[in-house]
Amino acid sequence: MLVVLLGVLPVAAGCAAIPTQTSPIPVNPSAGNASAVAAPEPVEGIDPLTLVREFVNAAANPENDYAAARAYLTPEAEKTWDTKGAPAIIETTFNTVPTAAAADDDDEQRTVLLQGKNVGRLQLEDNSFVQLLGNLETPIGLQRDEQDQWRISEPPDGIFVPLAGFQQNYRRVTLYFYDQDFGVLVPDPRWVVVAPSTSIPSRVVNLLLKGPAVGMRGALSTAVPNGAAQRKNTAENDNGALEVDLTKVGDITAAAARRIVAQVVKSLAGVTSSRIRVLVEGQPISADQEEWRPADVQTGEALTTPAAGLTGLLVENRRVLQVNGDPLPGPAGQGAYEVLSAAQSMDGSQLAVVARTGASPRLRVGGVQSDLAQVDLVANTLTRPTWLLSGRQDEPSGEVWTVVDGTDVVRVIRTDNGWTANAVNASELSLIGKITELRLSRDGTRVAAVVDGKLIVAAVVRGQDSAVSLRAPRNLQPSVLGTSALSLDWLAQDVVVASTSLAAWPIAKVNIDGLRIERYNTSNLTVPVGSVTAAPGRNVLAVDQSGLWSAGDVGDVWRASATAVAPGAQAFYPG
């Protein structure tokens, strides 16, 4: 397996709203006085270029206010170096370059240029990773000390951390918050310092209490009341259970207590295998149960996972087919419409198709095997539809999205008078370019889109007045994918797969924070790969110029389907 890593509201009754502003969260809460730690001194006689390189590598370790990196500074520079800002993450391969001012080998001062490429930064307010692109070039001044050793006298403005060092000293953790209907837990990735490892659970809980990441506020909700804090650090008790003791929670309902437990237990599941006790002021938060494991909490996962019997569908030759090539029962499969693209609802009962009517496309929606009602939506082009989850088990969805003419995102809602189109504020997305593909995440809190060939992820923010906006768009892995993306889908709540026109990257798997990208096996696929679909627990399906292919994971060789499909066919799972 080849892995490439590069440089990205109201709550339930009885709970207060999440804070819209929070105090900065220290990247390393254990940081203390650097002088208290005997950081190793630089190698005697080290030259300026190597000194700067070793300084940058040492800056990846934030322990004790970057004590390891401070060993490379003069005493005066130690006092002035600003370590309070967000660490900037750069590519692991970087250069230290002498300047023209470095004339003699025995001079007393030097200036070295640190050159590299930006990957991103760690946002201090919420410890989320944010992509930051472009070239880096910053001067660093050096001088000889009393022992005739080179030391940095003019450090860079801030902290620069190589990606490999960042991954060694920081750990990705996944917090969980709710969609706005409190039906589904939604992942919200963050990064915390690895050392000391025993305090990671406490840091995870601290981040959870602060609320959703900045870019997801308005899209996610929390059951944790505003102002709640840890009564003491989260740690294992004498019985081996991890105790999370909260304070300033106030009066909460039993339903809110269950939701708080679910958020805490699910968020800690990635950093501990211990049983978890959730307490309020030292007492169990729930009278029903004292210790919890992930299997004990309700996550809403069933609402975001297609049922086992829903094996995917195809659009080929203007008809909707089953994956075995048989026509889908009903008008859409029998050729009643000139189907250009289609989407099946999460429960499998509903179908939305873009069908050609005369010279123009029209959206039609209805039961899978029924006549599909035409929506009053005039357009020259419509993207492949995408369904919102229903919010309740065994209840059909009443909302489907598409993009009109590459710019106007609309949500079509079932009403007593049929299906009605409503505008989505997608100005931040359309400013990037033409939208050719858009997929709602199966929890409904994010969209993934292809915009002028770029892979974009944005938050779905629903206002109290029923207005919906797409906010905080992020261009994922532009240095790798560029403008090559063609089709995409959600493999998981926090993972997107995209097909491209790049021979080296026919199918890519990308985490939603943009820090990690993985290449699916290139065997057997021919670019451009025009269609890709994915779903939790399913094989990824792709259609290229030679047919339909499937793969279980990034390292698997693509297997040809027994179903023969023509170039231009589309595969899709529910969602």
TrEMBL record:
<dbReference type="InterPro" id="IPR059026">
    <property type="entry name" value="LpqB_N"/>
</dbReference>
<dbReference type="InterPro" id="IPR018910">
    <property type="entry name" value="LpqB_C"/>
</dbReference>
<keyword id="KW-0732">Signal</keyword>
<feature type="domain" description="GerMN">
    <location>
        <begin position="201"/>
        <end position="289"/>
    </location>
</feature>
<dbReference type="Pfam" id="PF25976">
    <property type="entry name" value="LpqB_N"/>
</dbReference>
<dbReference type="Pfam" id="PF10646">
    <property type="entry name" value="Germane"/>
</dbReference>
<dbReference type="Pfam" id="PF10647">
    <property type="entry name" value="Gmad1"/>
</dbReference>
<dbReference type="InterPro" id="IPR019606">
    <property type="entry name" value="GerMN"/>
</dbReference>
<protein>
    <recommendedName>
        <fullName>GerMN domain-containing protein</fullName>
    </recommendedName>
</protein>
<feature type="signal peptide">
    <location>
        <begin position="1"/>
        <end position="16"/>
    </location>
</feature>
